[in-house]
Amino acid sequence: MKLTKLAASFLAVTSIILSGGIASAQTAGTNGNYIGAGIAAGATSGGQGNDNAQFGGNIQGRYAVPKTPLSVRGSVLYGGDAAAIMPIVTYDAPIARNTNVYLGGGYSFITDEGQNSPLGNRNAPVVTLGVESEVSKNVIAYGDTKWGIDAYRNSDADAVSFQAGLGYRF
Questions:
Q1: What does the DSSP assignment read for 10-68?
Q2: pLDDT in tens, 24-82
Q3: Cα(8)–Cα(145) distance, rounded to whole angstroms?
Q4: Which of 25, 94, 112, 142 has its Cβ near the most Cβ atoms within 10 Å?
Q5: What is the number of other CB atoms lying within 10 angstroms of the CB of residue 8?
Q6: Contacts of 123 (CB under 8 A, 6+ apart)
Q7: pLDDT (0 to 100) of residue 146
Q8: 5 in Cβ contact with 13 (< 8 Å)
Q9: Checking DSSP bridges between strand 99-110 and strand 70-79, what pairing results, if any?
Q10: For residues 20 and 133, what is the distance between their CA atoms, to the nearest angstrom?
């Protein structure tokens, strides 16, 4: 039930954002593809004995879908005893020169379910919200929050992780 309500809310908000953004041409922002690395900090615990918040790293990439405000992203959060691997689709909205905010969703696959990662310890749907900016020629700085819905075994707790890093634009 909780997942159904969250999915309905996410779809409603996304449709409002998309309907407003599609009508306008992209005059700012960045549409570059990149691969980057940085830190990942889990901020939650599932309340059980083996699911404490984890600190680790991230590898993230972005492929901007041509002539659309959408991107396909991949993210790996590692630290603890497992890694979370996430394919994600985002809507990218330009907010300033060379800068976007993005909102999207995907799924987190834990490499060893039951073991800790920065985003919980079991496979789960993921929502992400972040910002990216080209800070110099071919260098992208990014930061985001990932929310894993019902991401802990033996618990109905959600997981939250914060990421930041630098990427190479190609």
A1: HHHHHHHHHHHHHTS---SB----EEEEEEEEE----SSTT----EEEEEEEEEEPTTS
A2: 444 588 888 999 999 999 998 877 766 678 999 999 999 999 999 999 999 999 998 99
A3: 20
A4: 142
A5: 10
A6: 107, 108, 109, 110, 113
A7: 98
A8: no
A9: unpaired
A10: 22
